[in-house]
Every structure is written in structure tokens, then in C-alpha cells.
Amino acid sequence: MAIVQGFTAVTPLASGAAGGKAPSLLKPALVVAVLVVLGLFVPTVVKSSFYLGLLINAIVLGIAALSIGFLARQSGLMMFGAAAFTGGATYLFAIAVTHLGWSAMTAAFFTLLASTFLSALIGALVVQARPLPFAMLTLALAQMLRSMVMITNFRPVTGGDDGLALNFAGSFFGLTQAQLSRPELFWPVAWLALCGVMLLAWSVGHSRTGRVLRAIRANEERMRFSGFNTYVPRVLAFTLSGFIAAVSGLLTGLHTAFASPELLDFVTGGHALVSTLIGGVGTVAGPVLGALLYVIGQDQFGATGHLELLTGLAVVLVIVAFPEGIMGFIRNNMAKLFRKSAAPASKDKDAAR
Description:
By secondary structure, the chain is mostly helical. It has 18 helices and two strands.
């Protein structure tokens, strides 16, 4: 009953403090808005197409990692088969523009809509599974899709082992296919997409639905006994996670103009999973930071000729040193600093009284 009381108390508190929260959120909102605008000017600072391309890869991987981290944070479910949703979205976009002849904008809208619908259907089937079976089910889904696109009978549609090259007419927000392939022109699309999905994940996480989801994760039986529906919120969380992953796959199709079976492979989903573990799932920014560090590490380790060895060692060291991820480590230490700085101030107030 304590949980019920806690949630019933949220509504009056939120309504009563609405006026007080608005000013407190104004400054962070302005800071975020400034960061979003400044991010659009990154191509003017990073002149190298190679390094700008690395940053775009980090954004695409970061969005995929965010989909995993969001679901893990809200529902306690770790998705091993994120490649099913990222790679699946890339194939949907490729098929729409190549075989159906749709424009890039129409195909992009169809990709996100279809991916969200399919995520809801799949989520309705798998969210009631325990964490380990859930992880294996999502992994099996990705491997099943990979095998499907390589079937000989489907080769005219999917391209089989050779993949499917995209050639679409029209433009996507004013950018042609040739322009979307250029990192400096594609950057605003990727950056705004990242900011959009981060805002979406943060908003849901701080909403009543997010609080209910975390309470279900903590004690599903008690929430069910208290009268809460524990099934629908999990399906919604999985659906949103699939949508975010689809955004990553759509960006891949727009930028590379190519869909290959490797996009559905476990290794591809493993990159996003490792990025999530590196950055941590406690915050929205954690998986994105993990993706950035992972992409930079892959670039540096690849130059040595010992990519797998150094990557494995680095991942193990990071996970051992930062159990909650690097962002979790940063957040915890900042909280400690704020508490220490606040303690002397409270003592001075007490002394003055």
C-alpha cells in the first residue's frame, strides 16, 4: 500500500508545485537549447570529413545504445538483439525506396511507423519473459531476420549476401542522396535526431509512466497487487525502445545508402550493448557517452592491428572500474561534491540562527 500512497501523492504535489517547478526547469532548458544550437556548428570546427564521420558513427551507435539503456533503466530488461530493430529499419527503408519507388521522406515515415508497430507486436509477446529469456528472444529475433534476408528466394527483394544498394529520388529535408552521404551536410540531421530521441527518452523517464515502470521493475508483484497494470507499461517501454532503435537504422540507410545482412548480426547489436555498459544506463546521456568512447577506442585500437584484444581488455577494465558506467561514476561524484558544498552552508545558517 505504500507504493499506492506514494503514487497518489504525486498528483497533488505536482499540481501544487507546478508554479515552482517551471522556473527551476527554465535554466536547464535554456542550457540544453544552447547546447543543441551549438552542436549544429560542429562541422565548422571539425573540418576533417574522417573525424566528422566518426562523430556521426558515434551518434548512430549512441541512438541504438540509448534504446537498450532506456529499456534496461525503465524495465530492467537487457535487449541483446537491438540489431533486429536497427538493421530491420534500414532494410524497410531500403525496400521502400528501391522496390516501391517511394521518396525518401515517405519511406522514412513508413519506416518509423512500421518499425513502431512491429515493436509493439513483438513487445506484446516477449515483455512478460524473465530477463535472461527476454535477452535470448531478442537475440533470436535478430538472427532470424539475418537468415531471412539471406534466403535465396528473397534475394530479389533483400539482395541476399550482397546487400541492397539504395538509390532514391527527391530529397530528405532538402538534402539529396548525394548530399546526405557527405558528413558535413548530414551532421545536422544526425545531431537533431539524437537530441530528439534523448529528449523523448528523458521525458518518458520523468513522467508518471516512467515512475510506474521503475516501480514495476523493483517489485512487479506488489504493483500488481496494488491494482496497477504491469503489462501495458512494459509494452509501451519496449515499443518506444524499438522506435528509438529504428531511428538509428533509418539514419544508417540515409547516410550510407546501403543495407547489408551484417546490420542484423549479433556483432552489430553487440557494439550498442557494449556502449550501453560503458556509459551506464542510469542516465539518458550514459549510452551516448559510451558510444562516443567506444567509437574512438575502435579507431585507435584498429590502428594497432590488435583491435579485438585491446577492445576486450578495455571493456573489462571499464566495467570493473565503473560498475555503474562512466556516466554513473561522474554523476555519483558530482552528487558527493554538491552534498559536501551544501553541508557548510547549512551549518552557517544554523549558526546564524
